[in-house]
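Please, structure for the following, as tokens.
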Amino acid sequence: MFVRALVLLAACALPLQAFAQVFPSKPIRLIVGYPPGGSGDFLTRLVAEEMSKDLGVAVVAENRPGAGATIATELAARAPADGYTVLNSTHHTINKVLYKNLGYDPDKDFAAVTRVAVGPLVIVVNNDVPIKSLKELLAFARANPGKLFCASAGNGSSPHLAAVQFEAVAGVKFTTVQFKGGGPAAQSLIAGDTQVMFATSPTVMGFVRGGRMRALAVTTAKASPAIPGIPGAEEAGLPGYDSNFSFGLYVPAGTPPAVIRRLHAAAAKGLAKPEVREKIAVQGMDATPSASPEAFEAELKAETPMWERVVLDSGARVE
């Protein structure tokens, strides 16, 4: 009986082993929940190109924007768990707390592959505001609660959450004005309708270099090599504040571990190339491939309580 059971287990394992050995044998789609032109789209296309080189099949970037990336995430969650559908996404806990009803379970429907990149946001102010440093911003905001209007890229966006986290750590309060994206928010700052903004580097650094707005600090504790010349929050005067945005690759839960490892290896190999790291740095981010899928999973779990707290503190909610 025991021998028969062993034979049965071995027979069941053979198809999985064979599947992993021939993977991939057809094109892979890499889905992202953001439109062309943004940081998420840029990373998706770059990683797709690099993975394709190593895997020997086409890895096709597919934009499925809308509903805070939940459309793309649900599509990936419902895909076959065979490694041929990969999702590039921010931390799933953000939308889990932000949205009342999701068409998928963020905790059960995905397996982690690897982190792709991490980027700080940039804290900028309107040129007409008499604030030249982060310490001056803190002093003014503490003395004048609610008087600084903060341009936000939308409820639950990375810039919005970074600003909320800043308020909590610094003990200040802005009057937040929500816009439909970072572009319109930046235009409001330049026009003087708002005075402070938390933004991704590609959104504002052209304006900063052109002298149309002033950068005070990045939102990570330490300065970022990807955004030279701007101090980290700790150095600039706000210890205890550390906020960033990141993207990572996921596959549907149940994908064979050997397939996940193969995807991880292909992505990590591409992200380790100096020329790829330089392209990512130009976008104000640092390439940060995880040591393994298990390491990425552990990182995500460790970050979950922080993102839950930040989203809840933001008061953002989507019905």
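The chain has two domains: 23-118+245-314, 120-236. The domain at 23-118+245-314 is CATH 3.40.190.150 (D-Maltodextrin-Binding Protein; domain 2).
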